[in-house]
Design brief:
Blueprint: H1 3-35, H2 47-52, H3 72-88, H4 90-95, H5 101-127, H6 136-155, H7 161-172, H8 174-178, H9 192-208, H10 220-224
Helix pairs in contact: 1-3, 1-9, 3-5, 5-6, 6-7, 7-9
């Protein structure tokens, strides 16, 4: 990667990283509101916890019939809106350059899908009633499918901690969660949103801590070895 690309990747990485950390923290907070009063971490067998696992209490994509739990839906909605903003910067964060046409179109679809689902969750929480995303099922499909696909595509041109960030971002995707850590004994596994949130925070920290362009790592051995100068006559 050239120096200009490295600088773009650094700037994009810091911006996207900060947004991912904020998005992840909000999602962890939303998960806390949903589960903390009835399900301890790693617990899921009590009657109250089993009841809360019903999709009736979902906070990311509420569906009728629905019962809000505190401000969980609002926090999840804002988390998705912040995530949509982070996705805009993802090409520069991972590769340091503008995406190609196909990648840009797919990324735009993913950003719009995430924003539509996030806004619907936020409005649902504020009104106490289910609000469908603008675009309906198309927006939901774009949110589920496009961000992880674009992330994998961009990761091909990434390296170092940017690759780790891409892996964590894919693991945090709702598509992956829906087939793994979000599947519970009833409907939804307790604290699954917190797992996604922590993965987003990890992805953000990987991007924020990418070394600056031109930075040279100094090993302990190099620090210990004295500089050898030629003898002067």
């Amino acid at each position: 990667m050239r120096a200009g690309g490295e600088r773009a990747a650094r700037a994009g990485g810091v911006g996207a990283g900060v947004l991912l950390v904020v998005s992840g923290a909000l999602l962890v907070a939303a998960s806390w509101v949903r589960w903390a009063d009835v399900c301890g971490w790693g617990e899921g067998g009590s009657a109250a916890c089993l009841k809360r696992q019903d999709h009736r209490y979902d906070i990311v994509v509420p569906g009728a019939p629905w019962e809000p739990v505190g401000a969980a839906a609002e926090l999840a909605g804002v988390s998705l809106l912040v995530l949509a903003a982070a996705l805009v910067l993802l090409p520069w964060a991972l590769t340091g350059r503008r995406p190609g046409l196909a990648t840009a179109v797919a990324l735009a679809g993913g950003v719009l899908g995430a924003a539509a689902v996030g806004l619907a969750a936020l409005r649902s929480g504020l009104t106490g009633e289910v609000v469908d995303p603008v675009g309906g099922g198309i927006a939901g499909a774009a949110w589920l499918l496009l961000p992880p696909a674009v992330t994998v595509r961009l990761a091909i041109g990434a390296r170092g901690r940017r690759v780790a960030a891409a892996v964590l971002l894919v693991l945090a995707a709702p598509l992956v969660a829906a087939f793994s850590y979000a599947v519970g004994p009833y409907d939804a596994r307790p604290w699954w949103e917190a797992v996604s949130g922590l993965l987003l925070v990890g992805a953000g920290l990987c991007l924020v801590t990418v070394p600056r362009p031109g930075a040279v790592a100094v090993t302990p051995q190099a620090q210990a070895e004295p500089e050898i100068r030629p003898a002067t006559p």
